[in-house]
Automatic annotation (TrEMBL):
Belongs to the kynureninase family. Residues 81-294 form the Aminotransferase class V domain. Keywords: Antibiotic biosynthesis, Hydrolase, Pyridine nucleotide biosynthesis, Pyridoxal phosphate. Catalyzes the cleavage of L-kynurenine (L-Kyn) and L-3-hydroxykynurenine (L-3OHKyn) into anthranilic acid (AA) and 3-hydroxyanthranilic acid (3-OHAA), respectively. Its cofactor is pyridoxal 5'-phosphate. GO terms for molecular function: kynureninase activity; pyridoxal phosphate binding. This is Kynureninase. It comes from Amycolatopsis keratiniphila.
Length: 394
């Protein structure tokens, strides 16, 4: 067993050698706090507050209604193009609009319309609840049934009855990452479509939607993309489906000519057809500003640091937390989150937060520690584990 002092030296050496260490300065983070919840609410990049204030003053105030034709109306597609490289998408396939829940509904119903003769929807059995709820409702409205199957079982369970399978790229409880290319190929062999939820992978691990042949995807922007509380989600529609992407929330913003105020809807030719109504401009432009932190960031480095932070967490836990149960895989099949089982998770997390270590918990017994490679330090990882150890000793 190594001494804590050795781990302190190790953490310091890892922080000094970290090629992304300079990025932390771009975030507004209280130095007394060790923040491990970037997988639920990303920290604010420092420049966002000033940018938003200027937008309110100059665009909303100064230009008033004219701003709609000076960039606001097109912002959902423009900001989508900024997210596209982060998910391995060529231009023209990503739009930012509405919430993940709403975009899931659009994508699921559109998928059943692309696969009319098929009567079931497969849903990742371990999914984040909203995905399952929305799938149940999409199925109810389209006369399909939902079957819940764990992701690894999908290749064996998918059949000629399956219209679409909805899978979470990274499991929100355990941090386990699924093989997108392999599962998508298996679904395609049975003629089913693949719909991926990227909420816990975008901004963490490299995502290659085009290369994996993914049909549809949705993702959050307020987690690892740091877009701000409730910032709008994004929807990806593969180019091959775009002209047939027939989504059920056909509001005027997705119409081919919204300001013509015509009587009947006709979908826009572009990915703008994924929109429904008026975009929430302030949140959208806060996200736009927040995305600046990704400029010039090497995605390979980002992934390596996310894994290295996790490895260091495991190492500290092995040394300092005797017998800790960690459901997060230790190989590369994980996102940037480590979970620790704890019978008293709610109370333990409250005590951690009291001591400045901010993670979260998921019932009944999971402590979650998000590792954001742009701002989490190795020193903070050690602090989380030593604080957990102190609490256990008490
Ligand atoms: C965070 C998260 C959501 C959130 O959906 P909202 O509509 O933004 O509330 C959905 N699915 C997954 C997998 C998530 O992790």
């Amino acid at each position: 067993m190594v001494a804590v002092t050795d781990l302190v030296a190790e953490a310091a050496a890892l922080d000094v050698a970290d090629p992304l260490a300079h990025k932390r300065n771009e975030f507004d983070l209280d130095t007394d706090v060790a923040y491990f919840d970037g997988n639920s609410l990303g920290a604010p990049p420092k420049h966002v507050a000033g940018r938003l204030a200027a937008i309110v003053r100059e665009q909303w105030g100064g230009r008033l209604i004219r701003s709609w034709s000076e960039g606001w109306w097109e912002a959902p597609v423009r900001v989508g193009e900024r997210i596209a490289p982060l998910v391995g998408a060529a231009p023209g396939q990503v739009v930012v609009a509405d919430s993940t829940s709403v975009d899931l509904f659009k994508a699921l119903v559109a998928a059943t319309r692309l696969r009319p003769g098929r009567d079931e929807i497969l849903v990742d059995a371990d999914t984040f609840p909203t995905d399952g709820y929305i799938a149940d409702e999409a199925a109810r409205l389209t006369g399909r049934t939902v079957r819940r199957v764990v992701a690894e079982e999908m290749p064996a369970q998918v059949s000629e009855r399956t219209a679409v399978a909805l899978i979470n790229h990274v499991d929100y409880v355990t941090g386990r990452a699924h093989d997108m290319a392999e599962l998508t190929a298996a679904l395609h062999r049975a003629g089913a479509l693949a719909l991926w939820d990227l909420c816990h992978s975008v901004g963490a691990l490299p995502v290659e939607l085009d290369a994996a042949g993914v049909d549809l995807a949705v993702g959050c922007t307020y987690k690892f993309l740091n877009g701000g509380p409730g910032s709008p989600a994004f929807l990806y529609v593969a180019a091959k489906w775009l002209d047939r992407f027939d989504q059920p929330l056909a509001g005027w913003a997705g119409d081919r000519d919204p300001f013509a105020m015509r009587g009947a809807y006709e979908a826009h030719a572009s990915i703008a057809r994924g929109r429904a109504g008026t975009p929430d401009i302030l949140s959208l432009l806060a996200l736009d500003a927040a995305l600046d932190v990704w400029d010039g960031v090497d995605r390979g480095l980002l992934r390596e640091k996310g894994l290295a932070l996790g490895d260091f967490f495991f190492r500290c836990a092995d040394e300092l937390l005797d017998g800790a149960k960690i459901p997060t895989p230790r190989g590369r099949d994980r996102g940037h989150q480590v979970s620790v089982l704890d019978d008293d998770a709610a109370k333990t997390m409250a005590a951690l937060i009291d001591r400045g270590v901010i993670g979260d918990f998921r019932p009944p017994n999971v402590l979650r520690f998000g590792l954001a490679p742009l701002y989490t330090t190795y020193g903070e990882v050690l602090r989380a584990v030593t604080t957990l150890r102190e609490l256990r000793a008490e």
